[in-house]
Amino acid sequence: MFPDLIDIGFLHLKTYGACMALGFLICWKLIERFSSRTDLSNLIMALMFSGIAGSRIAYVIEHWSEEFAASPANIIRVDQGGLMFYGGLILAIVVFFVWCAIKRERPLALADLFVSVLPLGHAFGRVGCFFYGCCYGRDSNAWCAVTFPAGSPSWFEHGRRAVSVLPTQLFEAAALVALFLILLWLRRRLAGNSRSEGMLTGAYLIGYALIRFCIEFLRGDPRAAVGFLSISQAISVCMVILGTASICYARFRRVEKEAR
Fold first, then answer.
1. pTM higher than 0.90, yes or no?
2. Range of the domain at 75
C-alpha cells in the first residue's frame, strides 16, 4: 500500500489519482495512434469526466449508508478512491452515443477503437486501487496474499486489524492486460475489414464481463447484492448479452452485405 505518491506539504499527489491519469493519457495517445485522428480530443475528455462522475455516483449510491450518510462532503473526495467502474462505463456509453448522434459518427466503428485500448487504461486504475488498498480480496493465507497496513480500507473493515487478503486488484489488472493484448491481436486481424464493425466491442464486453464476474467471487470488500449475485456480477451478465448481440449484429451485417 502506497497511497501518497508525493507529499511535501504544498504538493500532495495521490498514487491512485496518478495511476488513473497515466491510464487516461496512455489510452488517449493509443487512440490517436490507432485512428490517425486528432479531432477526438473533446470526446476523450467528455468520456474521461463522465467516466469518473459515473463511477463516483455508482459508488456513493452503493455505499451511502456506511460511508456518506454521516459525511456527505466526502462525496467529492475522489482522490481518496471509491469508484465503481461499471457506473462510469454506463454513463460514458450514454455520453458516447449522444456525441456520435450529434457528430453523425458510426457508433460501432468508433466504439471498436475505444474499447481496444480501454482495458490497458483500466489496468492502471486497478494498480491504483492496490496502492490505495480498496477493492481488496477475501481473507487468505495463500502465498500471494497481502496485508494492508493500519488505516487501509481492509484494516477498518476487519475491525481495525491487519488481515492477509487476496490482491484482487492485481489479479484484475493482469487479466485486463491480457484482454488488451487479445483485443490488439483481434484488431490487427480485422484491420481493413469494414464489415467487422462491432466485433471488437462485443469481444470487449464479453471479455471484461467474464473477468469481473470471476473476480467478484474473490472480492472481500463490502458490495451491494442483486439476489445471489453481487451488483457487478448482475451487470456482467447484461454485458455478456450486449456483447453477444454486438457480435451477432456484426456477423449478420457481414453476411447481408456479402449476399448483395
1. no
2. 4-259
| Three-state secondary-structure class, residue 45 | helix
Q: List, as one string, the DSSP characters of 2-24.
A: --EEEESSS-EEEHHHHHHHHHH
Q: Show the cell assigned to 182.
A: 487479445
* Cα distances (Å, whole numbers) of residue 8 to 12, 13, 225: 6, 9, 41
Task: Round to whole Å and give the CA distance between 222 and 42.
Answer: 36
Domain count, the chain: 1
Alpha carbon distance 218, 214 (integer Å): 7
How many CB atoms neighbour CB 78 within 10 A? Answer: 18
Give the number of other Cβ atoms within 10 Å of residue 164's Cβ.
16
- The 8-class DSSP code of residue 135 comes to S
Which residues are 147's β-sheet partners?
164
Instruction: Determine phi and psi for 18, rounding to 5 degrees.
Output: -65, -40
**Quick check: 250 and 196 in contact, CB under 8 A?**
yes
pLDDT tens for the chain, 260 residues long, are 566 666 666 566 678 888 988 999 999 999 999 988 888 999 999 999 999 899 888 888 887 877 777 778 778 776 666 788 889 999 999 999 999 999 999 899 999 999 999 999 999 999 999 998 889 999 999 999 999 988 888 988 899 898 999 999 999 999 999 999 999 999 999 887 767 889 999 999 999 999 999 999 999 998 888 889 999 999 999 999 999 999 998 888 755 555 44
Cβ 68 vs Cβ 75: under 8 Å? yes
DSSP 200-255: HHHHHHHHHHHHHHHHHTTB-S---EETTEEHHHHHHHHHHHHHHHHHHHHHHHHH
